[in-house]
Amino acid sequence: MGTTFGVLGISKGLRKGLSELGIETPTEIQEKTIPILLEMETDFIAQAKTGSGKTAAFGLPILMKVDPKAPNVQALIISPTRELCQQIGKQLFKFTKYTDKIFIETVYGGAKIDVQKSRLRRPTHIVVATPGRLLDLVEQKAIDLSNVSTLVLDEADEMMSMGFKKDLNRILEITTAKKQTWLFSATMPDHVKKIIKTYLSPQAKSIGAELRLQANSDIEYMYTLSTMSAKFKVLIAFLKSQKNGRGLVFCNTKKAAITLSNLLIDQEVNADVLEGGMRQMERDKAMRSFKKERTRILVATDVAARGIDVKGLAFVVHYELPLHLDEFTHRSGRTGRAGAKGLTLCLAEKNETSKIRFFERNLGMKMKLIR
Ligand code: AMP
Prior knowledge:
Blueprint lengths: L4 H4 L3 H9 L7 H12 L4 E4 L6 H12 L9 E4 L3 H14 L8 E4 L5 H8 L5 E4 L1 H9 L10 E4 L2 H6 L3 H10 L5 E6 L4 H10 L5 E4 L10 E8 L4 H11 L5 E4 L3 H13 L4 E4 L5 H12 L5 E4 L1 H4 L9 E4 L6 H8 L9 E8 L3 H11 L4 E2 L2
Bound molecules: adenosine monophosphate.
The site of adenosine monophosphate (AMP) has 15 residues, from helix 4.
């Protein structure tokens, strides 16, 4: 089971901002990184790809550590391209919607340096920059880096292959010796290792957040977009389209599972329920009946369905989208087993598309929208 941003130590104000962006459950890298960066003053190395949630993994600890009352640049984030800088800046800005004012400036080449210079004259706590433009600003004494206590090198491998080696070395040299450096890179080629060896502490913490999860290529992933009240009809239509196919339908709570199975039975669907509040005997009975194909549809909660291995399931329906990525994987993995073809359908509500995109990115697959 995943954890929550609250348990990881992220403040209420930030959590509110995250929640508005549909960011409720930490990704793997966030779960591993945030506690380390919040609790320790340390150099840090993480192997992580774009889409893994790495911006929040380093961004949230920075936002927690910045002192909004001190009007100086305390964190510097270096990223290879203008687009990435803008994305990082925008994300951090949105995260801080409900916190004390934290000012973030984004500076990159190809845009007017004078405008950037005048912006930097205002109180600024965090600067997101491409390497070359940052050095131009330093040269022109438009930015004071003497209070930078955290330096992030984002996409270090990309920066090296784009020819920023000299610039990066220089940035690492002109920032204070007291800073902590956090390096993020999707791959660890030799020139990145060299930077680590030269500039980061030998005691640097490191994590390899290689994504273990992989989408199952025997499963077809689909989703519909509707409202809470229209979902039931969508489900009934889907079950009809599946003829006699058998499957699991997941809900997030016991109550929702019980209600849904009753509604299905009312519509003469051959359904039963399996949820954690049932006595063992009742659970066994429900399982047996499902395995023996006497029940066509089993409405289940995640806890109750752990470890279920039933052969020949045609589909899994997420009547309510799961809260965590690993639940999504576990649920979906009940179909498409042992080389058989399977189908998984998410009945998403209209405000849940970001969650669909999140599952897609983390599992490296695409879901098909069914209208
Ligand atoms: P990144 O890997 O930082 O480029 O993040 C990729 C995308 O994932 C961004 O659009 C984030 O808003 C989104 N994201 C980051 N963390 C989470 C999370 N825990 N849950 C859902 N979406 C997330």
